[in-house]
Give the backbone structure.
Amino acid sequence: MTIDESKLDSIINEYKAELGSLIPILQDIQAEYNYLPQEAMEYVAKKLVIPEVQVFGVATFFKSFSLKPRGKQQIHVCMGTACHVRGSKNVLGELERKLGIKAGDTTPDGEYTLETVNCVGACAIGPVVVENEEYHGQMTPIKVEGLLNNR
Amino acid sequence: MKLTSINELEELRRVISSKDPDKPCIAVCGGPGCLAKQCLNVRDAFINEVSARGLSGKVDIKTTGCHGYCELGPIALIYPQGIFYQRLAVDDVAEVIEETIVNENILNRLLYTDEKTRKPIKNGNDIPFYNKQMQLILGNNSRIDPHSPEDYLAVGGYTALAKVLGSMKPENVIGEVKKSGLRGRGGGGFPTGRKWESTRNTQDDIKYVICNADEGDPGAFMDRSILEGNPHSVLEGMIICAYAIGSNEGYVYVRNEYPLAVSNIKTAIKQARELGLLGEDILGSGFTFDVKVNRGGGAFICGESTALMASLEGKPGEPRAKYIHTSDKGLWDKPSNLNNVETFANIPLIINKGAEWYAGIGTESSKGTKVFSLVGKINNTGLVEVPMGMRLREIIYDIGGGIPGGKAFKAVQTGGPSGGCIPESLIDLPVDYDRLMEAGSMMGSGGMIVMDEDTCMVDVANYFTHFLQEESCGKCVPCREGLFQMGGILTRITEGRGRMEDLALIKDLAGMLGDASLCGLGKTAANPVLSTLKYFEDEYLAHISDGKCPAGVCKNLITYGINPGNCTGCGLCLKKCPAGAITGERKQPHTLNTGNCIKCGICYDVCRFSAVVKE
Amino acid sequence: MPGNTQKPNGNMVTFLLNGAEVQADPNWSLLEAIQFYGIDIPTLCHNEGLTPYGVCRLCVVEIENGTRAKLVISCMHPVTGGLKVRTHSNRVIKTRKMIMELLIARCPGSKKLQDMASRLELKEVRFEPLNDDCILCGLCVRMCDEQMAARAIGFAGRGADRYITTPFDINSEECRKCGACMYICPVCELRCQGPQAETTLCSGCINTEPVCAQNFDDAMCFMVPCLSCVKGPDDVK
């Protein structure tokens, strides 16, 4: 893919190309492209004057970064303790079955990406599934169908 | 408007506080629990209703931070009376405005009904969930709009800062914090004053104040709620800390998964700068301090101070050996002081009310209050703030309202993945740093996950071990390889392939993890396993020698079936079964083919006649 | 003593090493001081020419501070006056053996690891062998960075999924194919050339107590189960 260097520049300049801002810079790039394109990471390494392997190390270390394009709809299943004891495993299992993918993958049509997250901090209403930005509390395998009503 | 002296600050506060105290105000809780229950629709309905009735300007409507009682959301408090309305729907809004705001009547159907007396309770403070609490930190959440510095000033915000800048030397501030007995609320419980003192004593032109808001403990969300609901209180604590240790630069490292917390703290910083409470020459004192916000990338390990600093330096979050303290060489090798959100939020209180007052709350070794997130198998889920030393029984039964569905209490897990499970036999344990440690658990950041008879303790140990295995940075051998093998053994046990020798091997691994791991994550990683093995060994043995999961959780060890006596042949389970494992004619008892069953439990959940059985 | 680049100067500190009062330069690491006094302790991720990384944890020693004793890694712990150091206490030995057991389970084919395991008298591996070829000691990463100034390889991923790679997992222009990483790697050196060298886990070169003599006349292994008698990982029960 081709990347728009001026777009990257404006993100990098917003953080004054500071080394300490590597993570926020990558976050903003991901917000722009929906994932981290390799070319963008190479460009960041060049601009911040750091080895590419450091950018790659950071991008693969932190869970919020994706090196593959993600689906239009993001489904995050909370696997925090409170959700776990209330049965989030079964909710995840049902989502995996319904979507036909495993956690961390994207449906072949590019519609859904299913991911797990270690606690979204909405423990009181667990099990929680976050669909795009919207929180769905007290989830059960039965409610999964309603969540994916068009599938 | 930029304030250039303490007098100007107090003048502004006087103007703000002189507003009509009887003006009605509807404070809608905007915490994560209520948000998920569509509280913003309720708030918008209030706004529309008020303007439709031409009451705009006569009624204030604010969206506040978390009030704590998530179970009852959406919640709204009606001031000045302090009426507590719960489970609000958009349809209730017109009636609330008509009856409560205009006619000043109370709508009993929206009040909380006492479980015992069956009487409605008007005032929030009288509800059992709240009246045993001591909300020093959370209390202001229901009174202020986090986007309004005026609201914070009106409840006495930044008076501590004014006091510190106006009349206290840095040494006195540290002395006060030391005397208060405040201990770090993030996990380890290190005395805050001593930490400040050693950072102050290190000579350097550049020092950093870092606020750890990377709340990673699964099952805990108090830091989120403080930062979302009262960001200025955290800022005020940070500024005071910076003054005390001699720092001019600070960071808030906040989880990217908390977008509202990120935006609220950013707004607060901007407002504080505009008011002259941050930046150069704060309130004309000559003291300079500013704060940047850095979003975390999603790694539990970044709650560890040196890993957090590595990530602030643009590196993967790997901890380093702490033989040189961060108070000597922290971020960018400069002296750094790191505290968590709740610790900073305690500072203004200590300065305002004095160390002696603060030290009067709590126990011998643990002072003040602690916010817990009371979640899991409990009736009143939410955030609770209690004085240190309150007994677990009071928290779980009096405040939490006990276990739902008449089930039996089994254990409460505290301290996050580094903590342990405390059994029923220790339910009268007073909760403080040391007593939890003695029981094989820890305070951690304050997660309290209640487990009932349907929770399998081996599964819980396996859950935490896999959590940590995934979240370990992988740098040192004991943690990376040790947790990998520990996870394998526990999975084996939950799948019914455990061996008796495994228990000894678990203990050997646990000893090595504690002794040889690089950082706190590895050192404490065995706590969930060790504590469940200590208190629930019989469950491990049932899995290993009998091939049974007593709680009916571990899938390989349970089978589903249909009791023909109870089955009415309604066909619901057949329709819902994703594996096609259920067959049967309508109105005839159905049968479940265990060969096809994927044990998802849907049939068990949908059956209204208890005909689906789990063994 | 190799590794002690700084000559002792006048300001020596005194500490207790296995009960004996000794002196050392405060600029040394504990490991350097221990080695200076001729005590052999195992190290794996340590190399004199590279910055200490402190990850294999094999060089742990027990230090006593007042009433509390704890384990620290000697390669990174500074020498301070008044320390009480025990290099071979039961707690230390037990910890080293457990770490070694984990490493052998990860890379059973490494001759270096086998030899170290033998020296530690590790007799039993209770985990299933994984037959990987990297223990993530990071020597190659530091070599590439500090000695070759290439920074062409580094760590990626985290936890159990951590691995060493070039940027984006593809051939890197930064890599000059100098081979320094292979030179310094402790596990990819040629494996023991004893009988069944391709598949067995053997430590015969260190061992003097032949256990499996009934099966192989020259094989010497005191691992339990004796892994020199198996053909591959699938045979291990």
